[in-house]
Amino acid sequence: MASEIEFSKQLKSYETSIEGLVVYDLAVFGDNRGWFKENWQREKMTAIGLSDFGPVQNNFSFNDKRGVARGIHAEPWDKFVSLGSGRIFGFWVDIREGSPTYGKHFTIEMDPSKAIFVPRGVANGYQTLEDNTVYSYLVNDHWSADAQYSFVSMFDESIGIDWPIPLDECEVSDKDKNHPLLADTTPIKPKKTLIVGANGQLGRALRALYPDAECVDRDALDIASPEVFTARRWRDYGTILNAAAYTAVDQAETADGRKDAWSANATAVANLAKISAQYGVTLVHVSSDYVFDGTTVEHPEDEILSPLGVYGQSKAAGDIAASTAPRHYIARTSWVIGDGNNFVKTMKSLADRDIKPSVVSDQIGRLTFTADLAAGIKHLLDTNAPFGTYNISNDGPPASWAEIASEVYSLSGKSSSDVTPVTTEEYYKDKEGIAPRPLQSTLNLAKIKATGFTPREWKQALNEYLQQ
Asked: Which of 322, 309, 332, 311 is nearest to 260 (CA)?
């Protein structure tokens, strides 16, 4: 005899013993005609914590008899499981490689008033408790023969599942009877992280924080080419960290440089955004203070883009492209210093050779050390911060390039007066092909700090950098 559905429950979520496996009470409304429910409602469910997992397919399994058992199957996609009719005993086992709840199981009886979100790699199965049970599930990827699947035997007594109907009384397929024990199963590997531009200053800092990431440069993967869409099995990737960029600000003003800048900074980012949208990959893109004209003393994230030169224009176009990806972080930064040729190393070399340089004094901002930028990016990903744009630079009082150069000289045991401050106009007088520079490059850091990440002050970071 069919059990009665509990009507008019409030939509509510419940955590389980498996990380990421979440049970939902659904609001089912009944009358003399039958019942109605919103089985999946994106806006309401994401508001109470359901992952915005982007389903692309809806499957049904009809079971005409009580005592049908299916499982235990793990697939490389997320699932949202519910019932159209009947009742089941559902069971799940975590076989995700590296999961803190690996090997744990969870069981629950479900009718149409309950649903469960099953994260990728958690093995799934059920046993029907009533005739005419309709089992439904949304998935966020299409079945593919070359994807990684894994299985666990429902007969494995070590898991400790307390079956309401003994398995020897159930209808079980021959395939499901022959799955491996939990101890012998192949864990589902986590989605991959790809670092693009891995050999640059930021790329090297990201590699230090993501030692298991796949790392490529342009020679290995041309992200501006149409061939990038088929260059990888993108559904196997969870995150793309785009540290690749064309940064030759003055060269970008030339005919060839203009094409190269737009290719690397705009077209390539648009390609990555399309991949991100199609496969649910989180895209991290790095922006620049050059997307602004420098007339605002401190730039918030939502300031209207107003680039001056070709480099800034191409970076602004890349920001717009990246923002079309549903799962995106834009890390806007300034005056980047890392492992490679940069302003600080140039000033240190000049100081060591007792050369007294003239340095621009009317461009104001903060340095960004790649260790802090990479740490800020990782913080956004680790904490599942809301998608969007975040300013990330080092903290501390804004300074001019000349003031920073003077600090380098002082830390190198030289006199800060060895540095002569000059205006931008004076510095570039009689030089041709010079791109316009924003005079104010200081980024407002309130938004990134509100997520719990506070970068080092630039003077502290500079001192530690020079001591390396």
From this structure: 311
Instruction: Name the amino acid, one letter, at 20.
Output: G
Average pLDDT in the chain:
95
Could you identify the residue written with the tokens 């004209």? Answer: 293
Give which of 222, 239, 240, 241 is closest to 231, Cα–Cα.
222
Please state the CATH superfamily assignment of the domain spanning residues 192-467 in this structure.
NAD(P)-binding Rossmann-like Domain (3.40.50.720)
Which token pair is 40? 């999946």
For residues 418 and 274, the answer to whether their CB atoms sit within 8 Å is no
Check: CB of residue 36 under 8 Å from CB of residue 29. Answer: yes
Residue 1 pLDDT exceeds 90: no
* Overall size of the chain counted in residues: 468
Catalytic site residue from 126, 135, 137, 465: 137
pLDDT digits (tens, 9 = 90+) for 159-208: 999 999 999 999 999 999 999 999 999 999 999 999 999 999 999 999 99
Encode pLDDT of 278-294 as tens digits: 988 999 999 999 999 99
Contact 226, 263 (CB under 8 A): no
Task: Provide the whole-model pTM.
Answer: 0.83
Domain segments of the chain: what residues?
Answer: 12-184, 192-467
Same fold, 12-184 and 192-467: no
Q: Which residues make Cβ contacts (< 8 Å) with residue 79, sequence separation at least 6?
A: 117, 118, 124, 137, 138, 139
Query: Can you tell me the mean pLDDT for 362-385?
Result: 96
What is the C-alpha separation between 389 and 300, in angstroms, rounded? 10
Q: Is 246 tagged catalytic?
A: no
Residue 142 among the catalytic residues: no
What is 12-184's CATH topology?
Answer: Jelly Rolls (2.60.120)
Which are the contacts of 5, defined by CB distance < 8 A and separation ≥ 6? 28, 30, 35, 111, 112, 113
Q: Are 432 and 438 contacting, i.e. CB atoms less than 8 angstroms apart?
A: no
Among 459, 445, 435, smallest CA distance to 290 is for: 435
- Predicted confidence (pLDDT) at residue 2 exceeds the cutoff of 60: no
**Max Cα distance, the chain (Å):** 93
Q: In what helix (H) or strand (E) does residue 467 lie, and over which residues does it extend? A: helix 458-467
Radius of gyration in angstroms for the set of CA atoms belonging to the chain, rounded to a whole number: 28
Summarised one tens digit per residue, pLDDT across range 327-350 is 999 999 999 999 989 999 999 999
| Residues in Cβ contact with 428 at an 8 Å cutoff, skipping those fewer than 6 apart | 434
Q: Which token pair is 251?
A: 């060269």
